[in-house]
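#struct-help
A.M.: can someone run this one for me? Single chain, 402 residues.
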Amino acid sequence: MDPLETIARVPRRPPRVDLAITALLLVWAVIEALAASGPGLLWQRVAFAVGVTLPLVLRRRAPVTVMAVLIGVLMVRIALVPGQEDSTFPFPSLLVATFSVALHTRGRAVAVATGFAPVLTMLALFPLGYYQGPMSIGQTFILGFFVAGAWVAGWLVRLRADRAAAAPADSARLAEEAAAARSDSARLAEEAVAAERAPIARELHDVVAHSLSIVAVQAGAAEELTALDPGSARAHIAAARRTAREALTEMRHVLDVQREGGPEAAPALAPQPTLERVADLVDEVFAAGLPVRLVTDGERGTVPAGVDLAGFRIVQEALTNVRRHAGAAETRVRIGYGDRWIEVEIRNAAGAPGTRAAARTAGAGRGLVGMRERVRLYGGTVTAGPDGDGFAVHARLPREPQ
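D.P.: on it. Structure tokens below:
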């Protein structure tokens, strides 16, 4: 235990240190009483020495009472045994009592008020004739200095003991806060995992949905042409194989960049698709039987990587929806590079019967939801819905993501 905490403890019985302090002060007071020539008789001086020292045994349990007893004994001495005192007592006992009042009194206001009692008492001794007077300014300063020093020392020990007593409670509170922080960390980790899964799912959906639809179209064309035109059938099979290989490469790229240490492996991976690759995408879809054409306006300039990828995925998803819901409908893809915005527009004419109704429900799937999430991520806008007899998707992406 900290020594200061030991001093501040209030045990049931007076500790040895208090008995020792009281005994030393008692011996000192008795020696002065025996050595002094007056006032009063010898037994009176000894009784006074005992009266202003022995109560200090209870200084911890009843500090204010001990202070009152010391002052009361002093007043009785002045009243019954008039004359000037040659000894130092009761000043040493009052200093110990002052220290105890500051340290052990429960109420702080009482501790402060009682701290003035020794000063007022000692100042009153000179007019009462206890010491040879009058009292000088120097004596007043010395008196105030020692009494204030004793009170401040007791108060500082008290503050130190209070902080030590509050330490276990603070430790418990910190433990609770740490447990709450761990719980919050676990929750945030779960939210982070969920937030990480969303873009992975979106990327995989865009890659798989588009690529598998191309592979299905190419495989169907090859199946029909196997007997009639083997050369064309082989070309369709080669296109399907190439599309599948590219899809696998993109899927590996999407998954690898999510792994720990992905950035170190990034140089070995293929780059993410950009709006510049829309021309290849259009050629691929056209080869699969969708009559589509690309129109590009404005200067490309510098396009942030995220915006570039979002624009490509929007075109990819829209063309996939055209094949799924409108069949071989004529389609136009337009990319307009402006100073502040990049506009991506995909419009298709009416397809087979029932195409318009199907197009109206297309937005309920994951594809159009993914479009909206991508565009919102970068501070853009997107609209998708019927356009005349066909369907149109229009997205605006800022050059500087917000």
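A.M.: thanks! The CA atoms of residues 45 and 263 lie 92 Å apart.
D.P.: also worth noting: The longest strand covers residues 390-398.
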